[in-house]
């Protein structure tokens, strides 16, 4: 796995004293305070960087609002951010995608989650001292961004793109984009270790669903949370043409986009 995208607990443990590596815990404040956290981690709860008030914009909080959060957390634009949660990384992956979208160059997902870390390394309830910064966002241009909107998705349906639905079976059977394949985002996680499955196993698993590096990939779910995790995994495996439908099925249905329903033979 590409360590510029996903890092192991061992990698992070060796860098706990590095001031340029900033650890972001995206769990609720009560979990961060009451259960404990990775030493040195700051708390940026999931709800603070997710805005569901405007369907047209998906759930991104806006560049300035996100920059304020990072500044309050004492993070500089040139820091290496490592983010984690306690839900196999799905909420942390959403933080990572948001940070990348607003121009933070070096942000990585911890392979595993808090529970996986806690099996091997110490945790703490001590809150680090934070000196706030003035964080200047640098949002990606539409050409640079992996995010795509409704019109781009309509166009992609006319091409040989693989539409990947990362939701559960019941959701998929109720309504899905035409020709989509279902790939539950949790399939990449080893239930025992709580970490990602070995790289070769992941590649085989994805290939079984027709999700291969030579294809154009379009990811969607309901509100773009679950696809964040799948996006990070694909990028860590070296996939290059991966589009992220931020509006996902919520926007698609709001625009009366064509859908299919019912079970699929391969399911």
Automatic annotation (TrEMBL):
Q: Which residues form the Rhodanese domain?
A: 17-126, 157-261
One Pfam family per UniProt? Rhodanese
Region Disordered: start and end of each range?
125-144
Q: Which SUPFAM superfamilies match?
A: Rhodanese/Cell cycle control phosphatase
The domain of life is: Archaea
Query: Transferase among the record's keywords?
Result: no
The protein's UniProt keywords, in alphabetical order, are:
Repeat
Signal sequence coordinates: none
Q: Does the keyword Repeat apply?
A: yes
**Protein name per its UniProtKB record:** Sulfurtransferase
Organism name: Natrinema zhouii
Taxonomy of the source species:
Archaea, Methanobacteriati, Methanobacteriota, Stenosarchaea group, Halobacteria
